[in-house]
Predict the 3D structure of the following.
Amino acid sequence: MYDYARINSSHILPAFPAFNSNVRLKDMYTVTGRIGYLFTPQLLGYVKGGGAWTSVDYVINGTVPVAFNSENAFGVNRSGWTVGGGIEWMFTPGWSVFGEFNYMDFGTKTSTFVPGRGVLPASTTDVVRAKLEVEQFLVGVNYKFNFGGGPVDAKY
């Protein structure tokens, strides 16, 4: 699954109140397998699990005496795992609706920040460890194509 994600987070750094940390998570990819149980002919419950990947931009901005770009780390690739579950209900032949929850854990990663222009000497770098977790709720409608006209009856 591919998600065009643009999830933004921002907070003031407690140790340095004049600095603001901005994080932007971009483009999540998952590859999962799922297994389910058919509660009724129309109601399917399932669990799923697999791998997850994303890219993250980190930017630290200063605000005193004027706003400036302090440090950044763009395009930090993160990989991890995902688990989830959901329920799907077929309300008419070929059509169904579903609700699903996914949890993604990208672990803890160390990133090296590059100083902004004119802020610190170019040889100065910061190393930050960040843990990334994402929770996702999905709802949707599915249409299942039946090009064969009916179920396949295999004969040997």
Q: What stands out?
A: Residues 73 and 113 are 5 Å apart (CA to CA).
